[in-house]
Amino acid sequence: MGPQQYAEALEQVRAGMAVLASAAALDLPATVAADAAVVLQRVLARGEAVLATVERRVETSGLWAADGARSATAWLTRHTGASRGEVGARLTAARQCEERPAFAAGFAAGDVRVRHLTVLAAALDGPGEARRVRRERFPEVAEAFAQVAAAATPARFARELARWCERVDPLAAVETDLSAWQDRRLVFTELGDTVLFEGSLPRAEGRLLQRRCEALAKAQATQRAGADADSDAAGGGGVDGHGGAEREASAAVPRAARLVDALCALVEAAAAAGGVPMLDGVPAQVIVVVPAPDLGTVTAGLGGAAGPGGGAAGPGVGAAGPGCGLGPPGSAPPGGRRQGPVLLGNGHGPAPVSREQARRLACGDAEVRRLVTDADGVITELGRSRRVASRDQRRYLLLRDGGCRFAGCGMPADRCQPHHLLHWADGGGTDVATMACLCTHCHHLVHEGGFTLAGDPEAELITLRPDGTEVGRTTPVPVPTQLAV
């Protein structure tokens, strides 16, 4: 099939999906909907196989390197909106079909799924003597396992493959245990206003963690029940007489949510006991940046520093508001520009948080300190006597840029380094007006890879390839704050 025919086929697929999407599925007869569910599932399975082969072509073409991407996975993630895990799994599946052609026909037909092939890759690929032996022996049974994969779920396929691995090498179970330990992981992913954390542990350690969380969750529930009983005995029936409603709400908390609370309590207990080490010289923490008008008189326990306006919280701050001293809702800074509290750090870009959440965080042991901008006294002109950006300069760049300023990268600013547009060695000054945030990878591209940044870091920066063509443009994020909690 030629490129023109391929493009026409893609257009037909797009048009067909548009027609199906425009149909009111709820108005379909149940039998038609059932048939559609089966057919569409097969179409999606085959479409995933086609997508995997197309993404593999992108990977082998090297096209992604022309834009300074770290890998084909990073480039595809940026341009398609898919997660790195999804793209990586499809690329793994496509490579397995190249290396083990017995699975290719089933994959193309939609019978063998991406999950089957990632299970296969985990069992056969990688270091270790046991995996080497499996790779040598697997061609003898590849056709049989391709048929198993086409007829079985990924879970059953994994069990059958594990039995074969144990027959090939009776000591494989030991290496499997070691592999499970080496492959342990915990991944945090921000999804809107929530953080998804997922991972894997060897069976023994995983069960131990589960039992500890269950024990603590049960103890917390017992403590809450005891507190409710004491409240009723005192005749109060709970706050404002709503103790019964509070108990019902507590009892309605799902088990999964109680386990999350228990896990957080375990971590907090370790931190309180000094079991959590310092991170980059400071205790592990998140930073909430609050505009000065949102922060009222800082409570004495928070130790606020005096600002240029003479008050503890800086200029334009009124009397203490409700809760933890935040100003009244709806207040706006001079000039009418309104920006809310922002959460920083943990490898992510700035994310807005509600004023209520900022109040709750400020209620704890947070330290309130001035975040000085250049207009309020930050050191922005260090001249030639110093090459390294100061702490205040780094903080200013983090807030101004919000992430790596290399077009299309998007690495969060707290994982970036200050870059001199006019290199310090060439006479450039260590000034925020001539610096921009670049991650380690993009910093190497600019210094050693021939890419350049042109323009004004305070306005718009253009990323240029070594041949002078444009990759894209970036602008700073609005500086959201005057105060950091």
What does the largest sheet look like?
5 strands, antiparallel
Low confidence ranges: 237-250, 295-338, 364-387, 480-485
Q: What order do the strands of the largest sheet run in, or round the barrel if closed?
A: 5-4-3-12-6
State the helical fraction: 40-55%
Strand segment tally: 12
Query: What is the molecular shape?
Result: globular
In terms of DSSP E residues, the strand content is 5-15%
Which H/E pattern describes the elements? HHHHHHHHHHEEHHHEEEHEHEEHEEEE
- In terms of structural class, how would the helical and strand content be classed? alpha+beta
Can you count the helices? 16
What is the averaged pLDDT score? 73
Straight-line N-to-C gap: 60 Å
Rg calc: 29 Å
Structure characterization notes:
The chain is of the alpha+beta class. It is built from 16 helices and 12 strands. The strands form 4 sheets. Strands 5-4-3-12-6 form a 5-stranded antiparallel beta sheet, with no helix packed on it. Strands 9-10-11 form a 3-stranded antiparallel beta sheet. The protein has a two-stranded antiparallel ribbon with strand order 1-2. Helix 2 crosses helix 4, helix 4 packs across helix 6 and helix 11 packs antiparallel against helix 12. The C terminus is likely disordered.
Helices and strands in order:
Layout lengths: L2 H20 L7 H32 L10 H9 L3 H16 L4 H6 L4 H11 L4 H9 L4 H10 L2 H15 L3 H11 L2 E7 L2 E7 L2 H31 L9 H9 L3 H18 L14 E4 L51 E4 L2 E5 L2 H8 L6 E2 L20 H11 L14 E5 L14 E5 H8 L4 E4 L5 E4 L5 E5 L8 E2 L1
Antiparallel strand pairs: 1-2, 3-4, 3-12, 4-5, 6-12, 7-8, 9-10, 10-11
